[in-house]
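It is worth pausing here to work through a concrete case rather than discussing structure prediction in the abstract. The textbook approach is simple: state the sequence, then state the predicted structure, then interpret. We follow exactly that order.
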Amino acid sequence: MLLYKFPKKLSAPEQIEQAGERIKVKNKIKKLRIQNIILLAVICILLWRVPAIWLKLLTVFILLIYIAFNCLIIMSVRRQEDSGAYTKIYDDRIEHKQAKLFNLKKTNYREVTVFYKDIQSSSQDAFGNMQFRLKSGEIISMYFCDTDAKLFMINNLYKEIKYPKKEYRDISDDEVIDKDDPDYSWKNWKDL
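Step two, the predicted structure:
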């Protein structure tokens, strides 16, 4: 049974709004590309006209870092707006299709199907990707364009994917905190 699907079917007004957002993003990417071309022209002129070598090197270094940063922004935006990626979460498996990191032509995809029974443990890496350690010893890393899919799995399917979710106890207003409790001393901020 299908529990979650990305991308969701959008109504006509939502499709129009999404198309407007895509146009805005494409215009911003065009501006970044034009800025990169202008900065490359500035680098060439400075290399030719400025007499101080240290000033030339400093300018080239700063401008190249700026251009590299713009290129990374462009690649990450392209990866997030990828229309070929999808996620389907079923009650027994996850079907996921994602673009590889440097997918400039949008033809280089990786399709993964993970069954819950094959998962030994799961976690997140430093970049927020879900990592599944399978019983075979293989580690599968999934990048989600839609953060809601990852949150749906963590909140609702943490037992199936063996995600280390901590269960917090609700303290209601009626519950009285026992000051004789050994854990009370670190809970009370006035004691610090």
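Step three, interpretation. The CA atoms of residues 11 and 17 lie 10 Å apart. The radius of gyration is 25 Å.
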